[in-house]
């Protein structure tokens, strides 16, 4: 019943065979993963190409080695070489079919290509370097051409690429490891560490041994580089084990080592986790950050592909027009892989005719016009993919914006002038509320920042004032922020209300700023740094004090807030509160707010452009403030344990530790002491024992 018509069988078999080549007797050479990649002209289609068997390092011979997703169709396996036919080439993913072959084909910024090329030349040809190893870290959003750039440059410079891909170690045992390496390894071989062990071994061998020279190969250049894109999971759990391996590698390195790490929506946290600043410095690791593919470059590539396909299969494929390509381009957030895939998908005849995506999609023409108009008004490259959420082409990525940019969009709030006919005539008593049209949707921006509304509000609250010029505007904005705060105050409804709260805060701040009310008066602001909220520090301090209060005055059986706001101020007024030293210090610190005391401004921490914004300890508890508090308590407990006072055994808040260098919302003990002397107040020590 479900049998396919005979005519369709070869086609089905074609893609089935492609995808399951590993199971059709080709496992011996299926390790595209860790194999050295030879320079090649057109790997995906060249049936004659030889594969170098010597290039499979020890670990690749061990177990199952999966093919890499992006390269699956470009691997020349003997089994599928002869099966390639017309229908297969039509099914071939366009990202592979139109993979760049030369530097000129790359849609990547020229400057970045040059940077990587210079680094490669320096580290592959001018060895040995004076100090440290040759390790490069390439970062940037997914699909911005990092891997493609390395592959093309390596081909141009005649450098082999030896790449690591995580093996699957479902049933890897100590015995397996022993039989693979022929000796009892020094590594602990329980499964969670096997990947890391194999990785270390791969690195050691790749660094130590040259490729075997095969018949017919020139002996000229034996340069190679090691490429790591697939990082063993173990290193995310225990980054120090990666650092140790890298230290060893750097001491003996003979060839460059390149890591590729793609940014994710939570910023560069993976990068910071695996390669913290200290390690970058210690091992002299170079970092080159790629940017999303620029819309103009993306359009060129999409145009070229669409034109080629249209000319080849005029009747089969439906070529999208320029506006459609623009939509597609803007929906993929600078990810060329996603853009090409979407183009292929949307160009399929079945899809485009049956669903009539480009021509009849409901409301599409309106959107297209909207897109075109917005683009036009903002001139060429100013079209920002992230700003027009409704204009999501098929396959459009769920775009994200780094917090830094998201805040910038709210605070700078770009506007578009209204034509006379469009101007909504407000009654004269409301004329002060007239504004040009906003080019952004604040709610969408908050959503794309992947941050809870209340956390976003915190950042906005910290930074908006610098961008205001009128005190009345500040008053209005702060009222909106207060309202937003109240909306989130009930834990029961917080999850739902956060979206409304962020909407009130962002729109309130935008609307209040009369200096940015019209498109014509938006210039001249210049760049101003953004900062992280002081709230983090103050909240920390608050938690810290609560813990200390509870533990120092446990006998009163009062909640910490009550202790700090009622009991301690009262005790501070007593000449002889009958307390021990730790308690007295705490009373001085928390229980008194003498008017003469001067509070310095906190030193603010700058927000960098890829900062995820949510401090690590808040990250997993976003949206759950009780959770936040619980975590903070734990963190604080830990800190307090380290600060424990030797004499009393009481945990002290950090403000009581004289060495504290951080600016402090509370007076330092010395300050408290000084203030106390001014007030001529004496608190005697009382030994309760
Ligand atoms: N003109 C082009 N420039 C760059 N890449 C292109 C171009 N045309 C097609 N491509 C294809 O787009 C894909 C780009 O993905 P690539 O792996 O280089 O990105 P990446 O930045 O390494 O991201 P990821 O970390 O997600 O792999 C490749 O499959 C490449 O063949």
UniProtKB/TrEMBL annotation:
Pfam families per UniProt: Rad17, RAD24_helical
Biased composition (Polar residues): 32-53, 82-91, 652-668
Cellular component annotations (GO), alphabetically ordered: nucleus; Rad17 RFC-like complex
UniProt main location, coarse: nucleus
Keywords: ATP-binding, Cell cycle, Chromosome, DNA damage, Nucleotide-binding, Nucleus, Phosphoprotein
Residue ranges of every copy of the AAA+ ATPase domain listed in the record: 132-289
GO BP terms, alphabetized: DNA damage checkpoint signaling; DNA repair; mitotic DNA replication checkpoint signaling
Cell compartment(s), UniProt: Chromosome; Nucleus
Coiled-coil ranges from the UniProt annotation: none
UniProt key word Aminoacyl-tRNA synthetase: no
A GO term, aspect molecular function: ATP binding
Positions of region (Disordered): 32-98, 639-677
InterPro entries the record matches: AAA+_ATPase, Checkpoint_prot_Rad17_Rad24, P-loop_NTPase, Rad17/Rad24_fun/met, RAD24-like_helical
Quaternary structure and partners: Part of a DNA-binding complex containing RFC2, RFC3, RFC4 and RFC5. Interacts with RAD1 and RAD9 within the 9-1-1 (RAD1-RAD9-HUS1) complex. Interacts with RAD9B, POLE, SNU13 and MCM7. DNA damage promotes interaction with ATR or ATM and disrupts interaction with the 9-1-1 (RAD1-RAD9-HUS1) complex. Interacts (when phosphorylated) with NBN; promoting recruitment of the MRN complex to DNA damage sites.
Family: Belongs to the rad17/RAD24 family.
Record's function text: Essential for sustained cell growth, maintenance of chromosomal stability, and ATR-dependent checkpoint activation upon DNA damage. Has a weak ATPase activity required for binding to chromatin. Participates in the recruitment of the 9-1-1 (RAD1-RAD9-HUS1) complex and RHNO1 onto chromatin, and in CHEK1 activation. Involved in homologous recombination by mediating recruitment of the MRN complex to DNA damage sites. May also serve as a sensor of DNA replication progression.
Protein name: Cell cycle checkpoint protein RAD17
Organism per entry: Cairina moschata
Phylogenetic placement of the source organism: Eukaryota, Metazoa, Chordata, Craniata, Vertebrata
């Amino acid at each position: 019943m479900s049998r396919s018509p005979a005519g369709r069988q070869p086609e089905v078999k074609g893609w089935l065979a492609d995808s399951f080549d590993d199971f059709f007797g080709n496992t011996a050479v299926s390790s595209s993963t860790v194999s050295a990649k030879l320079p090649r002209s057109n790997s995906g289609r060249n049936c004659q190409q030889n594969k170098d068997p010597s290039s499979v390092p020890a670990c690749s011979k061990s177990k199952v080695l999966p093919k890499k997703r992006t390269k699956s169709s470009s691997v020349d396996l003997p089994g599928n070489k002869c099966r390639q036919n017309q229908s297969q080439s039509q099914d071939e993913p366009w990202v592979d079919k139109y993979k760049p072959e030369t530097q000129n084909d790359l849609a990547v910024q020229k400057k970045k290509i040059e940077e990587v090329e210079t680094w490669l030349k320096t580290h592959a040809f001018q060895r040995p370097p004076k100090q440290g190893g040759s390790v490069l870290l390439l970062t940037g959003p997914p699909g911005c051409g990092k891997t493609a750039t390395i592959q093309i440059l390596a081909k141009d410079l005649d450098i082999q690429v030896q790449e690591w891909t995580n093996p699957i170690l479902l049933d890897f045992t100590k015995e397996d490891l022993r039989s693979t390496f022929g000796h009892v390894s020094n590594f602990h071989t329980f499964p969670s560490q096997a990947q890391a062990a194999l990785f270390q071994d791969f690195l050691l061998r790749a660094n130590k041994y040259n490729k075997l020279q095969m018949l017919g190969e020139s002996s000229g250049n034996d340069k190679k580089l090691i490429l790591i894109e697939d990082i063993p999971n173990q290193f995310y759990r225990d980054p120090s084990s990666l650092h140790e391996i890298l230290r060893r590698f750097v001491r003996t390195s003979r060839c460059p080592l390149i890591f590729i790490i793609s940014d994710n929506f939570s910023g560069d946290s993976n990068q910071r986790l695996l390669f913290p600043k200290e390690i970058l410095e210690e091992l002299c690791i170079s970092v080159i950050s790629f940017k999303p593919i620029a819309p103009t470059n993306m359009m060129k590539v999409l145009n070229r592909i669409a034109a080629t396909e249209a000319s080849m299969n005029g009747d089969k494929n439906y070529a999208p027009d320029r506006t459609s390509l623009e939509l597609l381009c803007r929906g993929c957030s600078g990810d060329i892989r996603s853009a090409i895939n979407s183009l292929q998908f949307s160009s399929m005849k079945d899809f485009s005719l049956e669903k009539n995506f480009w021509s009849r999609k409901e409301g599409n023409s309106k959107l297209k016009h909207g897109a075109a108009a917005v683009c036009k008004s903002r001139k060429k490259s100013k079209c920002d993919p992230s700003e027009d959420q409704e204009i999501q082409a098929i396959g459009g990525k769920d775009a994200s914006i780094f917090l830094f940019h998201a805040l910038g969009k709210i605070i700078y709030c770009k506007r578009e002038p209204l034509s006379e006919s469009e101007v909504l005539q407000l009654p004269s008593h409301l004329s002060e509320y007239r504004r040009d049209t906003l080019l952004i949707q604040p709610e969408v921006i908050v959503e794309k920042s992947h941050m809870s509304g209340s956390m976003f509000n915190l950042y906005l609250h910290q930074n908006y004032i610098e961008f205001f010029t009128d005190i009345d505007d500040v008053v209005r904005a702060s009222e909106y922020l207060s309202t937003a705060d109240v909306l989130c105050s009930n834990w029961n409804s917080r999850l739902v209300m956060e979206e409304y709260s962020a909407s009130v805060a962002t729109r309130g701040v935008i609307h209040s700023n009369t200096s940015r009310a019209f498109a014509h008066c938006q210039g001249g602001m210049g760049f101003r740094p953004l900062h992280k909220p002081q709230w983090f520090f103050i909240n920390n301090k608050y938690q810290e004090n609560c813990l200390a209060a509870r533990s120092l005055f446990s006998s009163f059986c009062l909640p910490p807030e009550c202790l700090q706001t009622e009991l301690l101020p009262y005790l501070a007024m007593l000449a002889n509160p009958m307390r021990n030293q730790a308690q007295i210090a705490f009373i001085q610190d928390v229980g008194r707010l003498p008017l003469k005391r001067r509070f310095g401004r906190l030193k603010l921490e700058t927000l960098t452009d890829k900062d995820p914004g949510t401090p690590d300890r808040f990250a997993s508890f976003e949206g759950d403030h009780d959770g936040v508090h619980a975590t903070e308590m734990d963190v604080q407990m830990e800190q307090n344990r380290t600060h424990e006072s030797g004499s009393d055994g009481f945990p002290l808040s950090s403000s009581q530790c004289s060495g504290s260098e951080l600016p402090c919302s509370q007076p330092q003990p010395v300050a408290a002491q000084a203030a106390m002397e001014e007030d001529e107040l004496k608190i005697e020590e009382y030994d309760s024992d």
